[in-house]
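re: ur question from yesterday

yeah so i grabbed the chain u mentioned. its 186 aa long if i counted rite. heres the sequnce exactly as i have it in my notes:
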Amino acid sequence: MTGHHLVMGTLTDYLSGGLLEDTHDERYRQKLARLLVEEKGYGKPEILSRHKLFVQAGTRKAVIRVDFLITILNKKCMLIKYAPGSIVTRRRSALAISRLVSGFQVPIVVVTNGLDAEIVSGSTGDVMSTGLHSIPSRDELVKIRNTHLWHPVSKDRAGRESRIAYAYEVDDACPCDETICRINES
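ran it thru and got these C-alpha cells back, copy pasting raw so excuse formatting
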C-alpha cells in the first residue's frame, strides 16, 4: 500500500505508454483516456494528462495535478477533473482550476468520478449536461472553440481562484495524498 490507495501492481498508461501504479483511481483515469480517444475522436497529442499547476493561498503554496487538459488548435478548450465520490462537490474546484491553467477561461469543464460526469460551462459555471456520454466529441469541441469568447482572466480573479483551488485541492486533501506537492518556504 502507498498512502491511502491500494496498489495492485503497475499498468501501462494509455496516452504515454509509460508505467503507472495500478490503483482504482488510475483505472478510472485510463478508462477516461480511452473514451476520449476511441469514442470522442481526440488525438493522443491533444490530451495533456497529469498537468502540474501551481496554486497559492496567501503564503501557502502547492503544486496540484490536473487530470486532463484538451488542447485544440493551440487553445486549452476542455479540462477534466476526476475524483472518486460525489461530483457535485468537485465542481467549484474544477472551475477555479479552469481559470488558472491558461491566461483565458477554459470553455468546457468536466467533473467526473469515472461513472458519471457533469459537463459545465467554464464561463457561467452552469451544468450543461450530465453523463460520460455527453462529454463533447472533438468535432463538438472544435465548434465550441471557434465560438468561445476568449476573455483573459484578470490577475485579481486568478488570485481568488487560486485560493479556492488551494482550499479544495490542498487544505481538503487527505494528508497522505501523494499527488499534491506542498511547498514549504523557510
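noticed a couple things. Residues 155-171 form the longest helix (17 residues). also The mean pLDDT is 91.
anyway ttyl
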